[in-house]
Amino acid sequence: MDANKARRFLEALKGMGIEGYFFERKDELTLAMVQREVKACTQCPLSRTRKSVVFGEGNARADLVFVGEAPGEEEDAQGRPFVGRAGKFLDQMIQRIGLLRKDVFICNVLKCRPPNNRDPDPAEVDMCKGYLFTQLQLIRPKVICTLGRHAYNTLMNADARITKIRGQFTEFNGIKLLPTYHPSFLLRNEERVKEALEDMEKLREILKKW
Ligand code: SF4
Known about the structure:
It is globular, with a radius of gyration of 16 Å. The longest helix has 18 residues, at about 120-140. The protein is an alpha/beta fold and about 210 residues long. It has a single domain, classed as 3-Layer(aba) Sandwich (Uracil-DNA Glycosylase, subunit E). The protein has ten helices and six strands; from the N terminus they run H-H-H-E-E-H-H-E-H-E-H-H-E-E-H-H. It has helices at about 5-15, 30-40, 45-50, 75-80, 85-95, 120-140, 150-155, 160-165, 185-190, 195-210, and strands at about 55-60, 65-70, 105-110, 145, 170, 175-180. The model is unreliable at about 15-25 (pLDDT under 50). Iron/sulfur cluster binds near residues 38 and 46. Iron/sulfur cluster (SF4) binds next to helix 3 and helix 6.
């Protein structure tokens, strides 16, 4: 982990208008430190309705990070990302790459559950996204796979429809990024599963190159 790089990145975040940033000046920033800060976060109203903060989990040095949208009911109850039906589906997608859940890191844009699983509010995303950026900066994976439009649009500062951009590699802060469908969407739209599996094949191929 390169603490200086992380620190420079956090300074850049402030320049992007992310105010009230949680980070305090310390000699070395680690994922565990960030997790402690996030667990205590009350920056947005979701802190009043959540049962738990879902920071994310997995390999802190993963080559591949999956980014979803927000915790759902199961995730909120357990404090872990992607543990319901969609999570089981994501596990199968990961296995198609030839990896296991413990090999990758899995997190969301929002760390707290929006009530009734509604879409994230743009103001909530603005207040929370700095945590995600920091997680990615500290893990520094080779590839990021965004799940659904919210994760892609947050990282790319875009307003794209997932059907238009899925399966096309781009870059976030020098890291390769592949957008694909959210597993919840795939559970409702089985006809799209084939495309998602093609995306997993692309991930398998690109990870083989390193
Ligand atoms: S959603 Fe993010 S910004 Fe809002 S309280 Fe939770 S951790 Fe803080």
